[in-house]
Amino acid sequence: MPxxxxxxxxxxxxxxxxxxxxxxxLGGELKAGDVICxxxxxxxxxxxFVQGLxxxxxxxxxxxxxxxxxxNEYRRANGNLIFHLDAxxxxxxxxxxxxxxxxxxxxxxxxxEWPEKLDGxxxxxxxxxxxxxxxxxxxQMRFNARGKxxxxxxxxxxxxxxxGA
Length: 165
Ligand SMILES: Nc1ncnc2c1ncn2[C@@H]1O[C@H](COP(=O)(O)OP(=O)(O)OP(=O)(O)O)[C@@H](O)[C@H]1O
Ligand SMILES: [Mg+2]
Hints:
Number of domains: 1
Bound molecules: adenosine-5'-triphosphate, magnesium ion
Order of helices and strands: EHEHEEHHEEEH
Strand order of the largest sheet: 1-7-6-2-5-4-3
Strand content: 25-35%
Number of helices: 5
Shape: globular
Low-confidence stretches: none
CATH architecture: 3-Layer(aba) Sandwich
Structural class: alpha/beta
CATH class: Alpha Beta
Number of strands: 7
Radius of gyration: 15 Å
Distance between the termini: 20 Å
Helix content: 25-40%
Largest sheet: 7 strands, mixed
CATH superfamily: P-loop containing nucleotide triphosphate hydrolases
Mean pLDDT: 93
């Protein structure tokens, strides 16, 4: 087992529905400028997690994998935005720089699949979520916060899921 600290929490999911429910908890807490990184192998459940996240946030748009266009946008009825980025197909850092993460962050929430591909471009402060395939429908999820905003987010999730720290 990894060493857990006050900036880290772990979940165990036994189904896609459970992964979506955990995503919903987080989604309900998000606001423009937040950065959520989702790391994990193909099929680990990143997009499944984003489906719940967008639902909990209140998206009126359906979530899909941003395969060819790299970035999907989801709207809330009041005009708020989520940018859902999938960096898997990015070939180079210059190509990644063209994405202009800063202007997305000024306008909405930023969710990034395959954040390893954007090394150096992601703000220092972020919530980093690692999903691991354990077996069939079992997934291990680890949330790691860096920065006060994300420590606060983790506290909120701890409260809502476990009823306190
Ligand atoms: N506990 C679970 N949580 C999430 N997904 C699960 C779980 N158990 C089974 N699955 C299945 O695993 C697959 C996860 O696919 P998903 O597209 O979410 O992965 P991904 O991490 O986004 O992959 P990619 O890197 O290709 O974008 C889905 O078919 C989902 O139904
Ligand atoms: Mg995906």
